[in-house]
Specification:
The complex is a heterodimer of chains A (218) and B (91). Helix content of chain A is 42%, strand content 11%. With 218 residues, chain A is of the alpha/beta class. In chain A, the strands form 2 sheets. Chain A has a two-stranded parallel ribbon. By secondary structure, chain B is mainly β. A 5-stranded antiparallel β-sheet of chain B has the order 4-3-2-1-5. Classes of the chains: A alpha/beta (218), B mainly beta (91).
């Protein structure tokens, strides 16, 4: 075993390790690398384009979507605008709704619960939620979310009463969907930014319920 | 063009190559719930063409019990799926 046969600029990094090679590269990663090489070779994209898109993607975060949700909880008129034109509502808060032509916010209520899936691939409102979780891209979620969604929700810890209509939205095409979860009770005293902190990524996919904050220890 | 509230059926045809109509919906009947804008046709756009003419896109809702014969959930549960116009037929 050869240890640490290269130099590091940063002096804090002085532990021994094996050479950083691509061993056991996942098939998907190898496929993507081959595709990128081919597209670059054919002049369809440049490596800078690819890097910029990746940089953009990893710079996105569910905290942006959470700001939309929190505002909709405290401002009923904003909520109506968010439901009518989600993209315009995002611009109101100086958020970037992304290159997708249309993003649509779906409102969870006492009687209707939405959850989002993309059975064909992994369509997701990345601009407002960041990169999708791995499970969202995996076959089990993609197939079971449409065929036995209540069982899937139970596994996420969400129990829906029988009188709640479950609407599973399969985003198969150009539209991206964002769930507006219900505001938890007991949050009347919270400020908008405190409310936003309760809005998780999973709750905006529709597989979680924003948690009620536990009473602060005094 | 289809209207909101209209009953439609997803074409049951096979399609070679890229398309955005899930197999589990083919032949199923649903209701148009939203009329989106029109978008490039992914079936041609995916192969380096201009994707024209654009196709109208609809959000179609289906009863879970219509899509899955052995549906175990609540009778009111529904699936909402975006389907392009050329995959829809009058029901």
């Amino acid at each position: 075993m050869s240890l640490h046969d290269h130099d590091h600029d940063d002096r804090d990094h002085d532990h021994p390790h094996e050479p950083l090679t691509i061993v056991g590269e996942p098939v998907a990663a190898a496929r993507v690398r081959a595709l990128v090489d081919l597209l670059v070779e054919k002049g369809v994209v440049g490596r800078d384009d690819v890097r910029q898109r990746i940089d953009w993607l990893v710079s996105r975060s569910p905290s942006d979507g959470a700001r939309l949700v929190a505002r909709s909880w405290v401002d009923p008129e904003f909520r109506q605008r968010l439901l009518a034109d989600t993209r315009a509502a995002a611009f109101e808060l100086d958020l970037d709704p992304g290159p997708s032509p249309v993003v649509i916010a779906l409102e969870n209520t006492e009687t209707v619960h939405h959850m989002v899936v993309c059975t064909l691939c992994s369509c997701y409102p990345k601009a407002l939620l960041g990169p999708p979780p791995d499970w969202y891209k995996d076959f089990p979620y993609r197939s079971r979310a449409v065929s036995e969604p209540r069982a899937v929700l139970e596994e996420f810890g969400v129990h829906l009463d029988a009188d709640v209509e479950l609407r599973v939205v399969d985003s198969t095409a150009d539209i991206r969907y964002l769930v507006i979860p219900q505001r938890p009770s007991g949050t009347e005293a919270l400020r908008e930014d405190e409310l936003a902190a309760l809005v998780t990524r999973d709750s905006m996919i529709g597989v979680a319920i924003p948690a009620v904050p536990s009473p602060a220890a005094s | 063009m289809y209207q909101r509230g209209q009953e439609v059926r997803v074409a049951a045809r096979q399609h070679e190559g890229h398309h955005r109509t899930p197999a589990y919906l083919k032949g199923k009947q649903g209701t148009v719930t939203r009329v989106h804008a029109s978008f490039l046709n992914p079936e041609t756009h995916a192969y380096g063409t201009d994707g024209l003419p654009e196709q109208a896109l609809y959000l179609v809702s289906f009863a879970q019990s219509d899509v899955w014969p052995e549906h175990h959930g609540d009778a009111a549960d529904r699936l909402y799926v975006d389907v392009f116009e050329h995959w829809l037929e009058e029901a």
